[in-house]
């Protein structure tokens, strides 16, 4: 979608959206490469390290067969189909079958518990679900409370009453299925927000959402495609970051992906796998990078062309570590489930300023605004807003018109994130609106303090919150996970406090330091500060 340019200004100035009236994600992200050439689509690495390779021809055929299975079981256009799987071949088959049928797929994180699963299935009114053995164990306990759910498909070979085996059903189905005619604005996905505050909301996205992601993905991956490109991310394919940024944006370009179902993220094992498979492009969220830094990983001879990162602020300290360890810059992005990848970076187009998220993605008009949607001057702190309309923006929150209306002010979608844009167009993240700490008359964002804490040699991870204070309104408290070789102590806490005072400011140092083994996080790796605030 991008026309390559030597400067950011040229790239941004010359960009024009090209969204066709008729568009279907199954056709765009799979079928046009299923031309009989057996072009590689997926390398799947299982938990034991065994690999299987699947072509676009095979993926297209299997998704057509599954579309016929859904049709035979009484599902039709507009029905919601839940995909409760981790990285696997079955996952894109299920999504593509839904897209080509005009149905709406719902990606669900494989580690969701029963309550999280029930809420999303009930809220969406899902009529079918595809899952594995682990998912079936959870689903079977809530099945009676899901009156809309009529079809369950399990990918393992074990028979279950009330469920169909996924692969035998596909093998028995016809391989001919004409993809329905959809417009770019027809609904395709409900992606539930990660829910840092309140119940998650279902962001209903149209088929055009993949097109809306392309400018940022192409820019931040040093332009796509290139010969030899091969993508891998540890980010689960249940979230917009893994599903669209990685899987379908890369398949739109015919670039193969590596899928890997790991028991847990092992930093050095991830480095080794990337080297052995020749990974050229990766999306490593800041949490993964922090874990790699904490483990003091060694570069086993990687051949990476691009590192894409986002989901939370990277910070200058971590950015420097990435460059030193990987030999290339991490290109940070900013977005959210409702309107993704609106800001990005590319060190070949403009200098990276560590701590900054970058500049507005070509095709996106991003401004700092107030809660009325009025633009604020450069240097002022306000809400990061995205001028509408925009191909990347959701249609609405599913069954939630009130929340949908609150998401907009004037011409802008309000992200709910606070930031600053400097005179050179760089955006700097401050915090979520509800994470701002008010202390002794100052309004303090936690991110800047967390970035400073990361510079201390003892700190592996940190989260900063405000706790009630009868004099200051709130006091700053830092929750800290230590690096190996460091032990909690009052002396270390005082040392860290003094470090922040000197490095940042006297009014921004944490008056309270709490050491912890882990931090509560959403499934996408964002710290759940509300849980830390509740602990006091």
TrEMBL record:
CDD domains: MACS_like_3
Superkingdom classification of source: Bacteria
Domain AMP-dependent synthetase/ligase per the UniProt entry, residue ranges: 38-398
SUPFAM superfamilies attached to this UniProt entry: Acetyl-CoA synthetase-like (SSF56801)
Alphabetically ordered keywords of this record: ATP-binding, Ligase, Nucleotide-binding
Gene Ontology terms, MF aspect: ATP binding; CoA-ligase activity; fatty acid ligase activity; fatty-acyl-CoA synthase activity
Limits of the AMP-binding enzyme C-terminal domain: 448-526
GO biological process, one term: fatty acid biosynthetic process
Family designation: Belongs to the ATP-dependent AMP-binding enzyme family.
Name this protein carries in UniProt: AMP-dependent synthetase
Origin species: Bradyrhizobium jicamae
């Amino acid at each position: 979608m991008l026309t390559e340019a030597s400067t950011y200004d040229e790239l941004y100035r010359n960009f024009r959206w090209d969204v066709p009236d008729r568009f279907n994600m199954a056709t765009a992200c799979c079928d046009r490469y299923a031309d009989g050439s057996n072009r590689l689509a997926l390398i799947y690495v299982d938990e034991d390290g065994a690999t299987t390779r699947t072509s676009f021809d095979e993926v297209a055929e299997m998704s057509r067969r599954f579309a016929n299975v859904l049709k035979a079981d009484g599902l039709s256009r507009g029905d919601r189909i839940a995909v409760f799987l981790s990285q696997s071949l079955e996952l894109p088959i299920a999504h593509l079958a839904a897209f080509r049928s005009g149905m709406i797929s719902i990606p669900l994180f494989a580690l969701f518990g029963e309550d999280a699963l029930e809420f999303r299935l009930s809220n969406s009114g899902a009529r079918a679900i595809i899952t594995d053995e682990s998912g079936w164990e959870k689903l079977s306990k809530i099945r009676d409370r899901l009156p809309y759910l009529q079809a369950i498909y399990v990918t393992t070979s074990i028979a279950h009453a009330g469920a169909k085996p996924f692969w035998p059903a596909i093998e028995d189905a016809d391989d001919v299925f004409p993809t329905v005619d959809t417009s770019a604005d027809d609904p395709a996905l409900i992606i539930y927000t990660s829910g840092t505050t309140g119940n998650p909301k279902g962001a209903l996205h149209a088929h055009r959402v993949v097109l809306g992601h392309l400018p940022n993905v192409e820019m931040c991956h040093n332009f796509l495609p290139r010969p030899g490109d091969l993508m891998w991310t540890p980010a689960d394919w249940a979230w917009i970051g893994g599903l669209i940024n990685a899987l379908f944006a890369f398949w739109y370009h015919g670039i193969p992906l590596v899928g890997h179902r790991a028991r847990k993220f092992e930093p050095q094992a991830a480095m080794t796998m990337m080297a052995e498979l020749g990974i050229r492009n990766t999306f490593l969220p800041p949490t993964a990078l922090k874990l790699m830094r904490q483990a003091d990983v060694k570069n086993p001879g990687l051949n990476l062309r691009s590192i894409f990162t986002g989901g939370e602020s990277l910070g200058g300290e971590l950015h420097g570590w990435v460059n030193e360890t990987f030999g290339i810059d991490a290109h940070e992005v900013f977005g959210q489930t409702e309107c993704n990848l609106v800001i990005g970076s590319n060190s070949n187009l403009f200098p990276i300023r560590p701590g900054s998220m970058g500049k507005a993605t070509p095709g996106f008009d991003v401004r700092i605004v107030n809660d009325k949607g009025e633009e604020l001057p450069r240097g002022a702190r306000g809400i990061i807003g995205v001028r509408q309309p925009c191909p990347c923006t959701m249609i609405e929150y599913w069954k939630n018109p009130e929340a949908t209306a609150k998401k907009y002010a004037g011409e802008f979608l309000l992200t709910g994130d606070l930031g600053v844009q400097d005179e050179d167009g760089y955006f700097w993240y401050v915090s979520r609106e509800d994470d701002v700490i008010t202390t002794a008359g100052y309004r303090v964002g936690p991110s800047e303090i967390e970035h400073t804490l990361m510079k201390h040699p003892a700190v592996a991870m940190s989260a900063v919150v405000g706790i009630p204070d009868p004099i200051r309104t709130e006091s700053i408290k830092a929750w800290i996970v230590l690096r190996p070789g460091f032990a909690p102590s009052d002396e270390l806490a005082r040392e860290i406090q003094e470090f922040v005072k000197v490095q940042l400011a006297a009014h921004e140092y944490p008056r309270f330091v709490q050491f912890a083994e882990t931090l509560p996080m959403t499934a996408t790796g964002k710290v759940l500060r509300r849980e830390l605030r509740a602990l006091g």
